[in-house]
Write a structure and sequence with these properties.
By secondary structure, this protein is of the alpha+beta class. 18% of the residues lie in helices and 36% in strands. The protein has helices at 3-12, 77-82; strands at residues 22-26, 31-40, 43-48, 58-62, 66-71. The chain has a five-stranded antiparallel sheet with strand order 4-3-2-1-5, covered by helices on one side. β1 and β2 form a beta hairpin. The chain is globular.
Length: 90
């Protein structure tokens, strides 16, 4: 499975117990804070928390350009385990 397919799965199968917001880091090492998102085919539409310096609110990015996802909210171990993660959080 390619990295793009993995990221697509992350966003299309987003767990109900996790708020649909966070910070995404792309292949250019830009951090994009977002408060919601939508998925279409191989693209992810992010609704920014605040407009960037150019005034843009929405970002359309291909799944292949995603490098990292940072969660803002506290994550519950039970939600992560239901999503397939294994192990134990401290």
């Amino acid at each position: 499975m390619s990295a793009a397919e993995i990221w697509k799965n992350v966003f299309t199968k987003w767990p109900e117990g996790i708020a649909r917001r966070g910070m995404l880091v792309n292949s250019l090492n830009e951090t994009i804070p977002f408060k919601s998102f939508m998925v279409k085919d191989e693209l992810l539409l992010l609704d920014r928390t605040n407009p960037d310096p150019a005034g843009t609110r929405f970002v359309l990015i291909s799944f292949g350009e995603i490098r990292t996802l940072k969660y803002i909210d506290q994550l519950k171990e039970s939600v992560l385990k239901a999503d397939g993660f294994r192990g134990k959080l401290a």
